[in-house]
Structures are given as C-alpha cells and as structure tokens.
Give the backbone structure.
Amino acid sequence: MSTTTAGAHAHAHGHAEAGVGDFISTYVFSRDHKIIGMQFLFSTLLWFMVGGLLALGIRWQLAWPWSGMPVIGPMLFSGEGGQISPEFYTMLFTMHATVMIFFVIIPILAGAFGNYLIPLMIGAEDMAFPTLNMLSYWFMWPAFLLIGSSFFISPSNGAGGGWTSYPPLSSIPEAAPGSGSGQTLWLLGVTFVGISSMMGSINYMTTIIQMRAPGMTMFRLPLTIWGIFITALLQAFALPVLTAAGLMLLLDRVVGTGFFIPEMLVVNNSLPASGGGQPLLWQHLFWFYSHPAVYIMILPAMGMVSEIIACFSRKPIFGYRPMIFSIAGIAGLGFIVWGHHMFVSGMNPYLGMTFMTATMLIALPSAVKVFNWLGTIWRGKIQFTTPMLFALSFVSMFIIGGLSGIFMAATTVDIFIHDTYFIVAHFHYVLFGGTAMAVFGAIYFWFPKMFGRMMNETLGKIHFFFTFLFLNGTFYPMHVLGAVGFPRRLADPYHYETFRHLMPVNQFMTLCAIGMVTVQVVFAANFLFSIFSGRKVGRNPWGANSLEWTAPSPPGHGNFDFQPVVYRGPYEYSSPEVDADYYPQNQPLAQKT
Amino acid sequence: MLVPILGVWVFVSAAFNWWPFSGGALAFPGEHWLPHDISVHGVVIDGLYYFILAVTGAIFIATTVAMFWFLLRYDGRQNATPVKFIHGSHTLEVIWSVLPAVTLLFIAIFQMNAWSDVKIQRPLQSVGPDGEQGTLDDVFLPPLLEVTGRQFEWKIRYPGEDQEFDTPDDIHLVNDLHIPVDEEIVIAIKSDDVLHSFFLPNVRLKQDVVPGMKQYIWFEATETGTFDIVCAELCGWGHYKMKGRLTVESREDFERWLGQKYKAQETNQLSLELAER
C-alpha cells in the first residue's frame, strides 16, 4: 500500500551520501509518516513559542495597561510611544487563540503524534495514503502564511474579531476599521487549516481500519490510537460545516451576500447590507464545528496520558473498554452540546435547557476516565519519570478544568460567568494544564523512539516543576477574576470601577506567565541538545508493551525490520504469565520459567 | 522527588479551597468573590453557584486526596507489595458512572426553574380575562425603557409622557439608565450595529444584543445605588470603554429624575423651534 521512494529510503542509511534532490524528497517533501510527523512537531513547537509570546503581550496589557512594554514596545509600536493600542489588543488575543488552536494544539496532536504513532502503534509500514499525508502538511503552509501575514506583516491590519469571528463585526469591514484585509486573510487561512485536517483525518481513519498488523484487533489497539481514531471521525464530520460557514462569511465580507447580516444593517457608515441573514446562524455553524474541536484538542491527549500512566505504574490500564466507550461517549455527546456556548446569545431559551442537560452528561464520561486513571495507579509500582509527572499533572489539571465546566454548564450560573475570566480559566486548565502538559509528557516519552536518544531527566523535572507551578499561578486566579465578573477581551478592564481592585491579581498572574514562558527555555534547550547528544538508547528504554517499542530507535523507512504479529492488548504490565514486568504485544505466549 | 509533587499539590489545593473562603491566602487586597448582589433572582444564582462549588470542591478534594495517597503509597521505590494485576472492575465502573450521572442530572433539573424565571417567564401585567396564567390572552408587562447597543455606547430610551415608544416625546439618553427599586421591570434590548452584551454584574444578568432581534429582559432590584453596565461581547476596538451606569432609586426619585430629563429635552426642542422661526 505504501509507496517507497528511493529518497525516503536513504533516510534509513543517513543522509550523508544523499544528493540535494534526495535531501528534498527525504526531509522536505517526504512521504514518510515519521518525517511528516516531525515536520508537524517542529512547526507546531515554533508556533507554540509565537503563541506564548503573544500571550505575554495580552498579560502585559492586563497587568500594566497603557504602559510601554520594555524593549519590545518601542520596536513594535513606536508610533504609540511603546503602548499597546486597543485595536492591537484585539488583534493580540485573536491571534493568540488562532495560533494556539489552529497551529499548535490541533496539528501537534493529530499532525505530529497522530502521524508519527499510528503506523508504528498498529504495526504498519506507513500511512494508507502517503502522498495525501504529505499534502496535509504542506496545506498548513498557506495557512501559516495567510494568517501570519494577516498579523505579522502589518500588525495594524490584523484580524480583530476574536478567534470566534462573530459577525457582523467580522463580516462588515467598516465594523473593525483596522482589520481591513486581515480578517479576509484570516478566514482563508482557517479554510486551509480545515483542508489540511480533513486530509489527515481521512488518512488516519483509513490507516487504522485497513492497515493493522495481524492479530491487532480493534480492542487490542492502544488508547492513543483510539483517541486519534475518534478525533479523526469528529474532524471528518464537523469540519465541512466550518468550511462552509467560513466560505459564507467570506462571501458576506467580500462579495456582499447577507448570510449572517440582517437587512439594511449599517455599521460605522457602511453601505446598508443587502441582508436577510442572521448573526446567530454563524454562531450555530461555528460552534457545531468548534465544540467537537474542543474534544479534538483533548481526546488524543487523553489517549497518550493513558499510555504513559499505565507504563509507569507497571500495571494494566484500569477499565480498557470503559475508557474507549467514554472516548466515544464524549465524541458522540460532543455533537449535541454546541449550544452551551450560546446560552445568553439570544438563542431560544428553551434550547438552553436541552443543551444544558446534554452538557451536564458529557461530564460523565470524563469522570469515568479520571476514575480509571486513578484505578490504574492504585496498587501499581509507580515510577516518577518526567513523562509520568506530566501525565499525572494532566489528570489533576483536567479534574479542575472538568469541574469548572459544570459551573458554566448550569445555564443560570452561566448567565453571570459567561464571557468572563471564569471561562478563560476553564479552557486554559483543559488546554494548557491538560493538553499541553500531556504533549510535553508525550514528547519526553516518545523522544527516545523519534531520535534514538533520551532527553535529560533532571532538566525535564525542572521543566515540569516550574511549568506546573507557574501554570497554576497564571490560570488559577482567573477563576477568582471570573467570579467577580471580570470580562474577557477588554483592553482596559480597569475602566470599570468594579474591577479596579483586581489589578494586583493580574500583575501576579502576569509575573507567573512570564515565568512560565521563560522556563520553556529549559525545555527547548533540553530538546535540541538531546537530539544531538542525548544518551543513546535501544528499542525499548521504558519497558513498554506497544508495538512501536519493538521497532528500531529511530525506526527506518518501513518502520519494522520484521513482521509484527499481535497476541494481546497493549497494557499487560506485570502479567503473571511472564517474569518481566512487561509483556510486549508481539511476544508469543511464553512459558513461565 | 515526592517533596516537590507534594508541595505543588498543597499549592493547588490551597488555591482551590482556601482563597475564596478566607479572602486570599496570598493576601490580595479587596473583594475576590461574587460581587454584591442587588437582584431578587441573583440570590438563586448565587446559591446555585455556591452549591456547585461545594459539590465540585468535595469531588476535587476526594479525587486529589485519593491520587495523592496512591502516589505516596505505591511509589515504586518504597513499595514492596507486588503490582495487583487487574484489568478493571465492572462493579466499580457502574458505581462511578451512576453516581456522577445522578449528581449531574440533579444539578441540571434543580436549576431549570431558575433559568425559566430569568429567561423564559416574562412578567405579566395581568393574566387576561380567563384568569389563568400561561394562556394566550396573558398581557405582558410593557417595557419600562429600551436599551440599544451601538459602537461604543448604550443608547437609552424612555417612552416619555404618553407611555409609548416611537413617538416624538421619547426621552433619549446615553449610558445613563435609571430604574425604580423593588419593582419588577422589563427592558427591551436591541443592537444598532454589531453584537454587544448587556451585562449587569450586580444584577446577575447578561444578555447578548443581536442586530435584527428585539429581546426583553426583566429583573427586580432590591437596593438603591449606582452600578456598572458592562459590555461583555467583543464589539470592536472600543469594546473596553462601552461602559454605562445603572442607577437604582426610589420610585419618587426615579419619577423626579425622569420628569427633569423630559422637561430638559422638551424645552430644548421647543427653544430650537422658536429659534428657527
């Protein structure tokens, strides 16, 4: 099924003797899933840095509004005396969210880890459609360029409608005078991200269904693969809606149609809209994708965390099937809860009740997963390695993020906390405390497989400890702000007397955020240093069970130097059938010595 | 290695549980909790908030303590007992599915009435000739005033002496909203341009205003004073300064204030007309 190219083959032997053409086909336009995965990994990590710096800009303004940013301020906004202008502030948070969601979390989970792990974990030599896979990476580049140019080329001209881009603000150019072409480029960029994800998801589904090694039944798949599989389903069903809605918004903006604009609407002396549309329609269509997208951003992370926790507890995952059913349950319910973003939007309040009940129920599979993780570490032999620490912190942060979700699921309470920092706290706990921590754990965990070398454990633990500390210092107080009613997306919240006393809290949070970004330097140094001079390891440094650990580190083209045959599930740690405390999936039934 | 984990865990649980109740373990100045409530329905919302806080707080403490205990007890370096080779427990799965399900559904159903009071059951002036509530001949309480969101201000309109909107004697104001205390009032809200959100933190009320839609909100304030009107939906670069002021006063003060505004506006119109002649 896979197409082998001479260039890609050279990878297994190193690229020293390969020519320029070979280099390009091996490392640039590669069709090897591992290279594509790493391309995604490096691109997204770079964007992660950009997104983090954008966040610091936001935090600076909230802690010391209208005061000049040291060093960076005079360079960026010399015109305003180093201050962040309110227009620029709206672009900052729009771009922070866009970069983090569309360029970091979704592609790092599906693109980087999905690509890298699927064939290795199911025992295939590559993806089902290698060329499509390559295209899914290269279709990210138009998005990088479009959204990047919307903001970074002329920072006064970026998209400023929030990552949700609610019309009419986003559809009538006059409504946000600064964002002229920026908003249009932004919409085009998001469309390209959608195309890329769509290609990826089709490929993942096909590969997982069609290319499993002999003996690898669906219920012997690692939970990571289950997470990615269900994520791919979500993307395949939800993305077309966003793409269609995005094109409609683009038409509204450029051609003058009126899908989302009521008749004769005049904003800031614009021409009267041809109209006949409804702003709420966009919100429905947008959240019909973007709520499932919330789960796209967490399900693969949940899978990877299960992998790490089982491995370092030296114990089978507790409730393998309930874990799968709860992933499926989250995904299924995820399609009927989008309205909980719209409780106070003007949507029929009767609908609010329906969406609330569905939303409450989605907390159930999440709770089941947490209990099963706790069940896994119970009576194990826990090894506190760096990946394990990150995985455990995922669980604890996810508990906080999950529980705070119940507040906003309750429609009545949501009336008050909607669009306040309580919401911001909630999704940062889930996305940073949850997904980003899981991603860090996963990088530490699979790094030896990717590069054949270990990352430094001491530096890893320093990275973990300070990230964990500062993440709570930054995001926990957001709950407190939200409880006071502190709204999001205000360039200067202290304009309201009600919120003036919260400035010291914000300054504390900003200091923590600066600390959090700074400590990532340790990670970057550890990562880059270890690629070239980390301790060399063999195939299975962690003593793990799943198939990728039986391949060479790093695996060559075609992945396995033997045909893997699977005899059991991936979590048979400390099985009484063997002496070792692990029992690889492909090891034939052993006689106990 | 356990020491830092322990320390961090203490930090997190401290953050989650002590801050709100003791007013700040890190000693931040001022109020750090739900703002002062001046509405009738706010009591219910706050109660629900604290109820959910208690439930989720208990779950958080329980799961965290359990996790903590497991981490200490089953630390691979000190723990001599062999790993329990177990794949799960059907009974446990059923228990920990049913218990949260019941709790969550309870919260969901428990708060439906409050939601209905705040957003669905618009106050009535009378139940109509048939004497029954919820029938077609119910007469709604008419709006006391109309608020229109516009980049970046709140336009306020009172009906004037004829008690009817869209007549020449409407009173037009900007960002200055007065209402009588201890009366259930209805406000019509709409938008002139983009989305805004009419947010009264102290009244526990928030409603997006949508161009092309006219909506009604209602509440009863129980205290006099002045409070902020906040825009809570991104509406452009000036979103942060779309600030209004809500003044709750006695019926007499309110009437007097409205009368003054009416007189001031009519005088101006009259004098303008006179000047033109």
Remarks:
- The first helix of chain A runs from residue 6 to 10.
- The two ends of chain A are 41 Å apart (CA to CA).
- Chain A touches chain B through 115 residues (CB under 8 Å).
- Residues 173 and 180 of chain A are 6 Å apart (CA to CA).
